[in-house]
From TrEMBL:
GO molecular function: 5-formyltetrahydrofolate cyclo-ligase activity; ATP binding; metal ion binding
Source taxon at top rank: Bacteria
Protein's recorded name: 5-formyltetrahydrofolate cyclo-ligase
Binding site for substrate: 57, 62
Coiled coil (residue ranges): none
GO biological process: folic acid-containing compound biosynthetic process; tetrahydrofolate interconversion
Known catalytic reactions: (6S)-5-formyl-5,6,7,8-tetrahydrofolate + ATP = (6R)-5,10-methenyltetrahydrofolate + ADP + phosphate
E.C. numbers: 6.3.3.2
Keyword annotations from UniProtKB, A to Z: ATP-binding, Ligase, Magnesium, Metal-binding, Nucleotide-binding
Class in the EC hierarchy, top level: ligase
Amino acid sequence: MSAPSTLPSNRSQMRKHFRSLRNSLSQTQQLDASERILVQINALTQYRNANVIACYLAQDGEIDLELLIQDAWQQGKTLCLPVLHPFCKGHLVFVKYQQNSKMVTNRFGIPEPKLNVADIVPISLLDIVFTPLVAFDDSAQRLGMGGGFYDRTLAPMIRNEISPQVYGVAHDCQRVDEGLVNEKWDIPMQKIITPSSIFNAS
Ligand SMILES: Nc1ncnc2c1ncn2[C@@H]1O[C@H](COP(=O)(O)OP(=O)(O)OP(=O)(O)O)[C@@H](O)[C@H]1O
Ligand SMILES: [Mg+2]
């Protein structure tokens, strides 16, 4: 018989647990994490070779990619942010984000570039998508916030129609020892990157 788990067992309890962990990090820990995640990402050939990347603006204790955004701009990469799809409920579009982009706040209170059709970047043109997550395991499985937004938007990956690299980024405290149970709709991550480690898909 295995030892009793101290971790919450279902997805919604897990989300609560790991969101509270990341929200309790101090400002100093958050700053340190964002500096170290930049070093980790910069060491990846895939990032150095990427021309078009998508990332996110941190919310709810997520690891902050602001330094990565600055770096990507400096390197002349095209940087995109997710924007709620205007017609397709539960889907995202990726929109170019520049220093002078006009921002609006979406219905979740998250800032996003004001949608201008000319700035939409098709997923097939993205080299890397950095996704936020709530929890992950050693084989790079991801548990998100529960909206299924990334899963729906990147579902063509499962059908091999598109092939961006999808890397989850997280604090070390978001790692689940015991493994996550994936659902058939969960899009695969090739890697999970934390300030101290990189976990590859098995
Ligand atoms: N490709 C899809 N088509 C239709 N529904 C989907 C798809 N992917 C996910 N869903 C639905 O979205 C819901 C939430 O999915 P899930 O619990 O995996 O969210 P998540 O990965 O944590 O969220 P997010 O991607 O927004 O961070 C599920 O109940 C599922 O039915
Ligand atoms: Mg999912």
